[in-house]
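Entry 14. Ran structure prediction on the chain below.
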Amino acid sequence: MRRRVKSTLELLVAKNPRIGKPRPDVDADTRSFPVLPYVVFYQIEGRRIVVLRIVHGHRNIRPPLASLLTAI
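Output, structure tokens:
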């Protein structure tokens, strides 16, 4: 799992950081991208991608779990 998430982030998200879905329900600057069965939540900081959390896709990220995504 770890290798697949890392390679997906390096091959797709790092080269096209805005490919992820904007997630204003979590935070104005947060985006998400699926790496099945997970969802990677990240933010763009300059030329870097900062991974906030990796959550299983079946999890409900509405509060209170959404607060964990911005707790970093």
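The beta strands are 21-22, 30-35, 38-45, 48-56. Will compare against last week's run tomorrow.
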